[in-house]
Design goal:
The structure is a homodimer. With about 220 residues, the first copy, chain A, is α/β, with parallel strands linked by helices. The first copy, chain A, is about 50% helix and about 10% strand. Chain A has a five-stranded parallel sheet with strand order 2-1-3-4-5, sandwiched between helices. In chain A, helix 6 packs across helix 8 and helix 7 crosses helix 8. The radius of gyration of chain A is 23 Å and the shape is elongated. The two termini of chain A are about 40 Å apart. At the A-B interface, helix 4, strand 5 and helix 9 of A face helix 4, strand 5 and helix 9 of B. Chain B binds a DNA duplex (30 and 30 nucleotides) through helix 6 and helix 8.
DNA sequence: GGCAGGATCATACCTAGGTTTGGGACCGCG
DNA sequence: CGCGGTCCCAAACCTAGGTATGATCCTGCC
């Protein structure tokens, strides 16, 4: 217990966020880089979507500043690509001459903001603050859910079935009748479930089941 | 209550949805009215935001088509007014000459779509379908939550406190120690809670507490 | 004052949940 | 073929949850 900066299992919120900038215009990159650095934000710039994809994304809260009009791949298409590749990062669009349908499409797809050039520095900074915070929250949620999935994966098929029935509110004897085994066996499964899932109480387990989307009908819902 | 035609709790989804159109241009109102009626949708048109507000909103899934440029109150301001008055209805904006900041503001505030005139009929119909469906889901959720709140309101302060601790996973004896009463009294409160909330099981009660956003009120994180 | 409702508690009794100990049976895999 | 994992079960034993009966105390209210 010394002055260690962070534990191995650190919250995304505990580390330094990063702003990624993708724009083919070097002067824009420089300007944004200076802007963000002036308020103490880490920045990484890229000249193309391709470059950005090749870089290794750090596991910290981040956001992406994207020009809608990129050389080989438009900002909107890039947004769609990221979504398809399951890379979830809040996006802030910039545009010199965008139109309304573009804007609608981007916002519907979850963009944080859509700024028209020239924009005020403060508007960009506000958007980035919102985006980083959104990513921080979503990363924290994802981490919790991932831990949960890992524990759930250690359950045997039978234990998963029993977990569904337990969290649905059935009594041990009802569960036993439902799946055709003895009540004592249900109790044993139940004990295993509580230990493997690290649930401190039944309400705890119920909340885990909710997060995992577990119902009594779940035969093998493993994604 | 005498004149109750339908069953006491009807799903919003079970009734005929309505499309509201607010536009100061009569020809636009007529055109949209015809369009929606041609696909079998109920329509009600208004010449101003004021007129719309004066009308009694039926309790069915609905959506609102709004021109961004209304005479006395802009579409955006009207959207804000509705939000402030806690009138939640999905909004689809139309505009002849809108700009991107307007679009962004509308979409951030939750607009379903933002169509530029002239738009294709199909685009409008798609937007309406999405909006109606969104409203249907949100009404169903609101109805369930409202029932829950009504039952929760019948709990005494003490019962609410105990409910928070029970659903947090504390044992009866822990709850008793926590609030300084006997375990038997906790059990009695607990029985009252289950009956008043109409919970068929503890998991049931836990899910209700989740929906109501109930924690161990006295700020006791048990994670 | 008296009444209603909330909150408290005791005793008694019953059911539900949970662990331990000690098995038996099946199956895939090295 | 034996090892490990899964699934099954029983007896014994303990704790936790839940209800009923009956009671006391207080407070707000007509």
């Amino acid at each position: 217990m010394s002055g260690r900066p962070a534990s191995p299992h650190t919250l995304a919120s505990a580390e330094e966020p990063v702003v990624f900038v993708v724009d083919d215009d070097a002067s824009v990159r420089d300007a944004l880089s200076n802007l963000f650095r002036s308020v103490g934000l880490r920045v990484e710039v890229f000249g193309s979507a391709h470059e950005f994809l090749q870089s290794k994304l750090p596991n910290v809260a981040s956001c992406l500043i994207l020009d809608i009009r990129l050389p080989r791949l438009s900002g909107l298409d890039f947004q769609a690509e990221l979504a398809k590749a399951d890379i979830r990062i809040p996006i802030i669009f910039m545009t010199g001459h965008g139109d309304i349908p573009m804007t609608v499409r981007a916002m519907k797809a979850g963009a944080v903001d859509f700024l028209t050039k020239p924009f005020r520095d403060q508007d960009m900074l506000d958007a980035v603050t919102t985006a980083i915070e959104r990513d921080r929250v979503s990363r924290d949620e994802a981490r919790v859910l991932s831990d949960l999935h890992a524990r759930f994966a250690t359950l045997t098929p039978r234990e998963r079935e029993v977990m569904g029935l337990v969290t649905a509110g059935l009594m041990n004897k009802q569960i036993a009748a439902e799946i055709g085994i003895a009540e004592i066996t249900v109790k044993i499964h139940r004990g295993h479930i509580m230990r493997k899932m690290a649930a401190k109480s039944l309400p705890d387990l119920v909340r885990m089941a909710e997060m995992l989307g577990i119902g009594p009908a779940s035969g093998r819902p493993q994604t």
